TrEMBL record:
UniProt entry keywords in alphabetical sequence: Signal
Keyword Signal: yes
Stretch forming the signal peptide: 1-17
Protein name: Uncharacterized protein
PANTHER family (UniProt xref): CARBOHYDRATE BINDING DOMAIN-CONTAINING PROTEIN, TRANSMEMBRANE PROTEIN-RELATED
Amino acid sequence: MKVICLLLFFFVCGSLAHHCKNTTGYNTRFSLSAYNTYFPGKNGMEAMSFFECGSINIDFKQKQMAVSFHIIISGHPTIDGSLFAFGQNNTMYVTMNNGTACKKFPNSYPFPSGWPNVTNWGKTKIGQTSVDILDIPASPNGPMTNQTVFYDHKHCACLSTIIRNADISNAGVSTMLFFNFENKPNPDGFNLPSSCLNSDEHVDILLNRKRGDPTAEEQFQQSKALHYILQAFQ
């Protein structure tokens, strides 16, 4: 299944201000514009071009996460959905069809346990906001991409990240923006919709599929941005 990916990085290891490191999570809205950039697909990492927007709410301490996403890919139907992941019982729920269809899966998103290694390339300004330039190198166990994060230490907030293919012979770049970033989780944002309470019994009826048909699971797409939002954590 496709991973939502984009989002970030909460990173910022030794270069983070002390008060920023004490966070137990965060919540934010985001938008992602991707051109020929590697994201998880049906056959592993695939170069993709698309637009995604949505929100993410994650609680590191309680190991729970809620994501909403809206994905536009040329030549394909628009994808709208949400994802709820719970680390304590290793389950996640993905909703589609405006929340009327819900499917339960094993959780495929490990929750960050620490800050990744980053290189601080100094400071710049986005508009008139001073930000640190933090570089997250490609991981040998992850996609062949590099991330640069623009981080506002004063407000402990991510403003933007740029994702680029590490292989310069196959150029690709994505830009993600964050809106209304809060350096804490929203405790009221993890409640499952009613369609997920009996998801195994209702999903096949809603999708008009037979139980066990793999095409039923394929309809439950996941955020692509989420992959990169979490990648920066280790």
